[in-house]
Amino acid sequence: MINKKQAIEVLNAGLATGADYAEIYVEDVFSTGVALDNGKVESASKNRSYGAGVRLLKGYQSVYGYTSIVTKESLLKIAQDLANSFSGERVLTIEKLKTKKAKNIHTHEIPLSTVPFEDKINYLKRADKVLSEYDPRIIRRQAAFSTSKKDIHIFSSKGYEYIDSKERGRVAVMALAFEDGKIETGFNGPGASAGFEWFLNEINIEEIAKNTAKDAITMLGAKECPSGIMPVVIGNGFGGVIFHEACGHSLEGTSVSKKLSVFSDSLGKQIASPIVTAIDDGTIPNGWGSNNIDDEGNPTEKTVLIKDGVCTSFLLDDFTGRRIGMKGNGACRRESYKYEPTSRMSNTYIAPGNSTPEEIIASTKLGLYAASLGGGSVNPATGEFNFAANVAYIIRDGKICEPVRGATLIGSGKDILFNIDMVGNDLKRAQGVCGSASGGVPVDVGQPTIRVSQIAVGGNGGELK
Questions:
Q1: Is residue 233's pLDDT more than 80?
Q2: Which of 310, 289, 233 is nearest to 434 (CA)?
Q3: In the predicted model, is pLDDT for residue 283 greater than 90?
Q4: pLDDT tens across 107-164, in order?
Q5: 3-state class of 252 per DSSP?
Q6: DSSP 3-state assignment of 417?
Q7: Residue 50 near residue 70 (C-beta atoms within 8 A)
Q8: Strand pairing class (342-343; 160-179)
């Protein structure tokens, strides 16, 4: 770790040719992982990575470099090389740095980094036991537990050394079912910025395993999904991935500030149904996507992106905010020191409404119930998307009926926001890793049960009748 005196020398070297901002990001990461395959320990690992990145900004230009050799000499070389990208007179000199230690918003009674492999293996075996006993058609069972502890120092030309530490853990449970040549999978992956006590007390690993097995077996017997334009009820929790992908990315400064988003000029305008409010909140205690500070040293915030259907804010880091004349709101994130940071989501969700899930289903005469969504793709410039439904059912006369497989939701973020006509009161968040310009970062997606009045559904089951 370099000290303040060395950091000041590196920052000033970077500022020598007119850069108006300089930053050194240093991280030390300790991670562990253990995985079971059909009840046997497949792998157990401990890893440590250490490195630093230097970023310089000048107006709307940025340059970035990184190294795993964290010495004054190495960082000076990077800063000087980056400074050669600019030509001009020095506009800023750093003389001292004040230390700011981030306030930890999370509780860690049993730090994950201190939990022995044996305890994690025994925990996973509780899930494997449920999977193994659920149904003989489940031919493969996997369970894994991963943790990471990241210590961070950010030396910034704002005049501060920011110090932070964050620890996360995630469990992944997968069941693969096979019958008559068909294969289906079930998956659940809860996680948190919390200690081992969260996994012991806040989630039921046996119930998670049971639901994972149930999803795989249910879809094994499902018929092909019909296609057409129809009402779709999207379940809570991971159903929120459709907002995250189709709308959330289009509200990030990365695309908004360059006019590459369908929502670039939408501040103060109606972009959704009046019953829709959407929030990104990086301050949720123990939230999987939460952080004490962002990767520029700014405190994370609760940002209302859409209020009663009106676009009220974007997700911004300080740099993307320059282009649109707005300050960053704690949304600067990166996977590691190997990535230049930019604006990213944290815990993003549609706020709860007034309807019960039962009311939403009962008021739908004929349509699709997408209980769980899977992978998909989106174009932020147009908002066009397609998503697979991992678990889906046909709704007939207000009742959930037969399961269907191969359902794909196709549309655009702009259309789906206006077509949401019912919002439930059963908000739930689910965990994932979002890949984008600055790498893969932990995020929560979430929503209550919602209904989209009409959306294109792709499938090989003919017309819905």
A1: yes
A2: 289
A3: yes
A4: 899 999 999 999 999 999 999 999 999 999 999 999 999 999 999 999 999 999 999 9
A5: strand
A6: helix
A7: yes
A8: unpaired
What does the alpha-carbon distance between residue 244 and residue 446 come to, in Å, rounded to a whole number?
A: 8
Distance, in Å, from the CA atom of 341 to the CA atom of 154, rounded to the nearest integer, reads 12
Residue 251 phi, psi (nearest 5): -105, 5
φ/ψ of residue 161, rounded to 5: -110, 115
Instruction: Please check the confidence at residue 231 and state whether its pLDDT lies above 80.
Output: yes
pTM: 0.95
d(CA 147, CA 293) in angstroms, rounded, equals 20
Regarding beta strands 347-350 and 439-447, do their DSSP bridges make them parallel or antiparallel, or are they unpaired? parallel
Contact between 364 and 395 (Cβ < 8 Å) = yes
Distance CA 113, CA 158 (A): 33
Minimal CA–CA distance to 222: which of 455, 397, 459?
459
Model pLDDT for residues 427-460, shown as the tens digit of each residue: 999 999 999 999 999 999 999 999 999 999 999 9
Is beta strand 98-101 parallel, antiparallel or unpaired with respect to 160-179? parallel
Report d(CA 379, CA 259) in Å as an integer. Answer: 13
| pLDDT for res 49 | 97
DSSP letter, residue 71 = S
pLDDT at position 75, please? Answer: 98
Burial class (CB in 10 A: 0-12, 13-18, 19+), 43: exposed
d(CA 134, CA 124): 16
Residue 291 banded pLDDT, cuts 50, 70, 90:
very high
Q: Which SS3 state, helix, strand or coil, does residue 414 take?
A: helix
State both tokens at 105. 């918003």
Backbone angles phi, psi at 101, to 5 degrees: -95, 125
- Burial class, 302, CB count within 10 angstroms (exposed 0-12 / middle 13-18 / buried 19+): middle
How wide is the angle at C-alpha 269 spanned by C-alphas 387 and 304, nearest 5°? 65
pLDDT of residue 44: 97
